[in-house]
């Protein structure tokens, strides 16, 4: 049994998180319920920051808010002194509503609309991470119109792709994101942005993948990037003052996963950058930025469900259904993602059966966990699925008109509801009934 952060088994055999009984929280707020262990998030945040500070390197740690965004979440990120990566007008709007300082917001996206770019610039975001030539044209137009210099990073695809445990070095990167270095797009983009006086080209961005357990992919990417910077220095007298190496640091969903600590990932990156800098005499070490999403919130999240119906097919499978599923966690259906789960009110009970956890959607693929050992369960029990904090709530849907769950933050025996459970009224609030005499 892997217990993360402040998760503990209480004297009453219940799962406790943040000093609170998760069974009591489930009864109070209803299920499915997302719980976030704030101390774990804060520990990770300071782990990332510490590694930069101990090495005396200028940095920004930007939370990749796609992992889980809400006003309260952004307030925590602000308090922790992190920056924020947003990829849409909606994420930006939420951040601004949370009072997040716009100058610490980085605006991403492979198809930012004109309206989104206008919104970002009028809000005064720290920088735009430019993804493609279309966006360069839009930004040029806007810089001229507003008579304003725009701070940008160029998103590059270095031709290294991480597949969790191994790295593929691809010739020409087949990706919808960024400017490819291998086929000359990166050089062309740099020339174009340097030639336009309305841009301040702060540096570059690259993101090689997600749920990465080793440092090799990052160091390979750094080696490739800095190899290219040598060409840029010689050909265009340009050297970046910011190198953003993206996110992707892994977490332990199950015992098969073996992530490193924030310090280990960051130290390896810094070491490689310093190694590369010997080729750049007279240049200052660039600021290093990273964008962790999953590793800040993933294992801090636990979803509590109520157990409902069961179906036993002799010699085939025993299904245990819960009151949520793919609508609050699409990852098992989408990526065959694996999770661990416990019966939150029977934490020390003997595991006597192998069951599969089914969601409540009208969809055979709505299975949360295949083949997990559990004690005997009944419809008064609560299932706790751990490590659901990243890309769970943020990818939730209303399929089958199921309401999205509530989210509660816990820490040191205190709790706060930070996202209300949706109501039936919420589900129809954008519906417009037919006018009379139309479509008849
Ligand atoms: C550009 C960018 N930055 C950061 C992240 C965050 O990744 P992760 O949640 O794996 O840390 C992602 C998602 O993969 C991304 O696309
Ligand atoms: N949503 C994905 C990761 C994609 C991250 C964004 N580039 C997941 O749940 O693992």
From TrEMBL:
| E.C. number(s) listed in UniProt | 4.1.1.20
Which positions bind pyridoxal 5'-phosphate? 248, 291-294, 391
Its BP terms in the Gene Ontology are:
lysine biosynthetic process via diaminopimelate
List cofactor names only.
pyridoxal 5'-phosphate
Pfam family for this entry, one: Orn_DAP_Arg_deC
Per the record, the domain of life is Bacteria
Q: Which UniProt keywords apply?
A: Amino-acid biosynthesis, Decarboxylase, Lyase, Lysine biosynthesis, Pyridoxal phosphate
Signal keyword on record? no
Show the Gene3D superfamilies listed in the entry: Alanine racemase, Lyase, Ornithine Decarboxylase, Chain A, domain 1
Q: Which residues bind substrate?
A: 294, 331, 335, 363, 391
Assembly = Homodimer.
Q: Matching PANTHER family, A to Z?
A: DIAMINOPIMELATE DECARBOXYLASE, GROUP IV DECARBOXYLASE
- Its biological function? Specifically catalyzes the decarboxylation of meso-diaminopimelate (meso-DAP) to L-lysine.
Belongs to which family? Belongs to the Orn/Lys/Arg decarboxylase class-II family. LysA subfamily.
What is this protein called in UniProt?
Answer: Diaminopimelate decarboxylase
Q: Which organism is it from?
A: Fictibacillus phosphorivorans
Q: What is the lineage of its organism?
A: Bacteria, Bacillati, Bacillota, Bacilli, Bacillales
């Amino acid at each position: 049994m892997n217990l993360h952060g402040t998760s503990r088994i209480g004297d009453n055999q219940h799962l406790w998180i943040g000093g609170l009984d998760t069974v009591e929280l489930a009864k109070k707020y209803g299920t499915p319920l997302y719980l976030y262990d704030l101390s774990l998030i804060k520990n990770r945040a300071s782990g990332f920051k510490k590694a930069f500070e101990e090495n005396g390197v200028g940095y920004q740690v930007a939370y990749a808010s796609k992992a889980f965004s809400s006003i309260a979440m952004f307030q925590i990120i602000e308090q922790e002194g992190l920056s924020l990566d947003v990829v849409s007008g909606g994420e930006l709007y939420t951040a601004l509503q949370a009072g997040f300082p716009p100058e610490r917001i980085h605006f991403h996206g492979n198809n930012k609309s004109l309206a989104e770019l206008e919104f970002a610039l009028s809000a005064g975001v720290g920088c735009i991470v430019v993804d493609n030539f279309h966006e360069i044209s839009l930004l040029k137009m806007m810089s001229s119109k507003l008579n304003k210099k725009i701070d940008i990073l160029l998103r590059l695809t270095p031709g290294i792709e991480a597949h969790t445990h191994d790295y593929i070095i691809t010739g020409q990167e087949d990706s919808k994101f960024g400017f490819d270095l291998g086929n000359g797009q990166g050089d062309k983009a740099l020339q174009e942005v340097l030639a336009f006086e309305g841009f301040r080209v702060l540096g570059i961005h690259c993101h090689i993948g997600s749920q990465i357990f080793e440092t090799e992919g990052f160091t390979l990417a750094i080696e490739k990037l800095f190899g290219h910077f040598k060409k840029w220095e010689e050909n265009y007298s340009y050297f970046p003052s910011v190198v953003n190496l993206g996110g992707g640091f892994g977490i332990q969903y199950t015992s098969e996963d073996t992530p490193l600590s924030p310090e280990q990932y960051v130290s390896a990156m810094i070491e490689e950058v310093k190694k590369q800098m010997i080729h750049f005499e007279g240049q200052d070490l660039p600021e290093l930025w990273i964008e962790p999403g999953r590793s800040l919130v993933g294992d801090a999240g636990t979803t509590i469900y109520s157990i409902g119906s069961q179906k036993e097919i002799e010699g085939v499978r025993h299904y245990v259904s819960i009151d949520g599923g793919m609508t609050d966690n699409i990852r098992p259906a989408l990526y065959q993602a694996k999770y661990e789960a416990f019966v939150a009110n029977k934490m020390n009970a003997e595991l006597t059966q192998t069951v599969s956890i089914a969601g409540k959607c009208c969809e055979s693929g709505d299975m949360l966990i295949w083949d997990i050992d559990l004690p005997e369960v009944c419809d008064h029990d609560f299932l706790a699925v751990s490590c659901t904090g990243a890309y769970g709530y943020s990818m939730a849907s209303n399929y089958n008109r199921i309401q999205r769950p509530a989210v509660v933050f816990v820490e040191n025996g205190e709790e706060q509801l930070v996202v209300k459970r949706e109501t039936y009224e919420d589900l129809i609030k954008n519906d417009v009934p037919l006018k009379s005499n139309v479509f008849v």
